[in-house]
Every structure is written in structure tokens, then in C-alpha cells.
Design goal:
Largest sheet: none
Bound molecules: fe (ii) ion
Shape: globular
Radius of gyration: 21 Å
Order of helices and strands: HHHHHHHHHHHHH
Length: about 325
């Protein structure tokens, strides 16, 4: 049997439990938080006062912070790209509406609130150039992405396990910074988003765990493949208006590193967490090839940490069109 057919069989085998996994990891629409829970109520007479408060508190937050918040929001707003990518993964049946496509649709519904709430907040804050931000979002969706997983479900689930944890870290750190500056509302908003990301991380990690149980050799090879080529961030094609190629992502990621929202050490920590979670070191009876892959993975965090420690980040802020320093005075 070809590798592709084995993967399809594994996906079908696991599909019978997807309903149960949706119940375990996702929250029904009628019970989950909504963006308006964290924003001024535009039907209320207090609306203007609440907006005024947002604008006042926003003045406390520095330039790099806004850049990171904008970049995080744009990453969330490119959700159409992620949904269409996942819908195309082998075993995810869009037409037959199987368990996996139900998962993708329900996950998308939850994710959709993240961009919504951040977008509305940024708009009300008065600190950023919304039109420039909107253009970047549109470019990012129009450019699409390639995360190097192909349509392989194993590689995709490694990617999403990794990525959900990465977004958990960055939203959570932003929440802490906002709280420190006395901005409780923004802090709560980012905190609740990070909680969603953590749930999603656990879900995708369980998918991988279940695949390890039935197809350990190929699951190991997929994990190895993804880590060897490195996890590309979903916004790696990020660009500003007028740019032909993406230079913004590097600067965005430098900014996130500079203020400690997401660093190369975090990347290594996530890798280590995945290795521990899937108990990679104790998976035995593998093919020679998969055994080599396992040994490579076990040594990778310490190797990457040495590289991460040598990396230097530019000290000065990069000037984005999204945030004009003059607006922050
Ligand atoms: Fe998200
Ligand atoms: Fe998520």
C-alpha cells in the first residue's frame, strides 16, 4: 500500500472519534465568549466614555508593542488561508462533510473571533493606521502561503500543534505586558485568546498522539521532516503596501523578539514540549530510518538553543506604516 493510502486509512480510522474530540476541545457557539464581551457596547449610552478610556489607556503602550499587536492581529485575520489549506488535507472531506471537515469548520469558527476582537480594539485605540493594516491583511490573504506540509495530515498536525502553542505564547505575553501598563481590558482580551490557542494546541497534539499509536514510523518521519525544514510562521509572506516582496515579516519577528513576545528560545521550548508530550525518546521498535529521525529530534533542541543564544536582534525599532510614531506622542 502506498504511504498516501496508509495515511488515508489512518485518517478514516481516527475519524470515528472526531465528534468526541470536538466536544473535548472546542466550545459550542452559544457558550463561548464573543468579541463584543470585551469591547464597548455600541448600543449603550456609555459607548463614547468607554472608547475614550480605551484611547487614554492606549497612550501608555510603546511603539514596538503596537507593531506586535498589529502583526498578531493580521496573522489571525489571514484565517481564510488556513481554513482553505486544511480543507485540502488528505482525509479531510469537504464534500462528504466527514468528521475531519467538521473539525476544521468548528475550529475556524472559534479562530475567527480572534481577528475580530483585535481588529475592533485596534480601530478604537486610535494608535494605528488601520488603512495600512487592512492593506497588509489583504496582501497576506491574496499572496497565500506555503507551510511546507503539502496535503499530508501528519505534517499538518505537527505544524498546527506547534503553531497553536506559538500563538498561545505570544498572545499570553502581550496580555501580561498590557496588564503591567494598567490596561486590564486589552489584557483580558489577549488572555482569553491565548486560552483558545492552548486548547487548540492540546487538540492537535492529541491527533498526533493518536497517529503515533497506529503509524509510529511515518509519524516520526513527518515530525522529523517538519522540524528539519523548520516551522515557517503563518505570516511569513507578510508585506506592507507598496512592497513587492515580503520584508515585513523579518522586521515583525525582530520586533516580537526585541520585546520578548516571541523569541527563538520560545521556538526551541515549543519543540522540547512537543518531544516530551509525544514521549519521542521512548518510542521504540521503529524502522531504521524512523529510529534515526527520532535520534535527530532528540538532539535538536540543544543544538538549536546554541544557535538561538548566538542570535542578535537589532536594537532600534523598525518603522512600519501600520504605526506612526507621531501618533504615539
Ligand atoms: Fe487564533
Ligand atoms: Fe488557535
Amino acid at each position: 500500500m502506498s504511504l498516501k493510502n496508509i495515511r488515508l486509512e489512518v485518517m478514516q480510522h481516527l475519524e470515528k472519534d472526531v465528534d468526541q474530540l470536538i466536544e473535548k476541545y472546542l466550545i459550542p457557539v452559544d457558550n463561548i465568549w464573543q468579541p463584543t464581551d470585551f469591547l464597548p457596547n455600541s448600543e449603550s449610552d456609555n459607548f463614547y466614555d468607554e472608547v475614550k478610556e480605551i484611547r487614554e489607556l492606549s497612550k501608555e503602550l510603546p511603539y514596538d508593542f503596537w507593531v506586535v499587536l498589529v502583526g498578531d492581529m493580521i496573522t489571525e485575520e489571514a484565517l481564510p488561508t488556513y481554513e482553505s489549506w486544511l480543507m485540502d488535507v488528505e482525509g479531510v472531506g469537504q464534500m462528504e462533510r466527514n468528521g475531519w471537515s467538521k473539525w476544521v469548520r468548528h475550529w475556524t469558527a472559534e479562530e475567527n473571533r480572534h481577528g475580530d476582537v483585535l481588529n475592533k480594539y485596534l480601530y478604537l485605540s486610535g494608535r494605528v493606521n488601520m488603512r495600512e493594516i487592512e492593506k497588509t491583511t489583504q496582501h497576506l490573504i491574496a499572496d497565500g502561503f506555503d507551510i511546507g506540509t503539502g496535503q499530508d495530515p501528519y505534517k499538518n498536525f505537527v505544524y498546527t500543534s506547534f503553531q497553536e502553542l506559538a500563538t498561545y505564547i505570544s498572545h499570553n505575553r502581550v496580555a501580561k505586558m498590557a496588564k503591567k501598563k494598567g490596561n486590564k481590558q486589552l489584557s483580558k482580551m489577549c488572555k482569553i485568546i491565548s486560552g483558545d490557542e492552548m486548547r487548540h494546541h492540546h487538540a492537535y497534539s492529541e491527533f498526533v498522539e493518536r497517529i503515533f499509536a497506529v503509524d509510529p514510523n511515518q509519524m516520526m518521519m513527518a515530525f522529523h521532516y517538519m522540524m528539519k525544514q523548520k516551522i515557517a510562521m503563518p505570516a511569513h509572506f507578510l508585506r506592507e503596501s507598496g512592497d513587492k516582496i515580503s520584508t515585513a515579516f523579518e522586521e515583525f519577528s525582530n520586533t516580537a523578539q526585541r520585546i520578548g513576545v516571541y523569541t527563538s528560545t520560545d521556538y526551541v521550548d515549543i519543540l522540547q514540549k512537543l518531544i516530551d508530550r509525544w514521549d519521542i525518546g521512548n518510542i521504540n521498535n521503529l524502522s531504521d530510518e524512523a529510529e534515526k529521525a527520532r535520534d535527530y529530534l532528540m538532539k535538536l533542541p540543544s543544538r538549536m538553543l546554541r544557535i538561538a543564544e548566538r542570535m542578535t536582534i537589532p536594537e532600534n525599532s523598525y518603522q512600519f506604516k501600520w504605526v506612526e510614531p507621531a501618533r504615539l506622542k
